Amino acid sequence: MENNQKQPKKSKQFTGIQSAGLVILACFILAELIYFFVYGDPSHFMNNDPKNHPLQGDMLGTIYKGGFVVPIIQTLLLTVISLSVERYFAIKTAEGKGKTAKFVQDIKSALSKNDIAGATAICDVQRGSVGNVVTSVLVKYKEVEEDKTLSKEQQILAIQKEVEEATALELPMLSQNLPIIATIVTLGTLMGLFGTVLGMIRSFAALAGAGGTDSIALSAGISEALINTAFGIATGALAVISYNYFTSKIDKITYCIDEVSFSIVQTFAASHK
Questions:
Q1: Which residue range forms the structural domain that includes residue 168?
Q2: CA 14, 21, 186: angle at the middle one, nearest 5?
């Protein structure tokens, strides 16, 4: 029994942050600190009092007047930024060291020469999820090739099954945390709308005040409405861009794996009559 053969080692890679809840909590704390100690710094307001109107042209003070919804929306914005950075590095690692398009071409070139050892060496250089999946399939290729008890159809089915299993192990990690970003696409916009409604209610309450219009309360209400609208739109837009970008990257990786795996199966079928 020759069980001492060296098996290609799969690369250990950065798969991302497992607990997104901690990221959201950290973003919430940071958003609160920014809201109270940066936007709410007394120097941004008349008579150094955050209860007063912001100084003319002071944007930070105006943002502070957006109300309690501002740190909530800012938490969502910071979460999108944090998880986008996390997904960038996770997917970049999954792609491996080289260009995936060149990797596919190199693998197909090696397979066209029936050079399985060369294809395995290319995977060792590429690494990442793409390299890991192809390496697993190539290992199975060698195993079924040496197993004379299997028919050709059984050998091909074994290789195809290995493709499915290896892909199922590697690819789900790429989509980790993307559902949270997708949720923030809608949630960010809704929170902005919620803040806008609250601001408009405050504005109309000021207009209906006895003894004339309270200009400070009116301006505060309008500020709350506009600031939250701006934050909500920015958060939703960034979340949409981030989600679509990383989804397209994952689709590209999936396509590369499918293309190489199909080539491996075809090579086996053509070289084993």
A1: 20-271
A2: 100
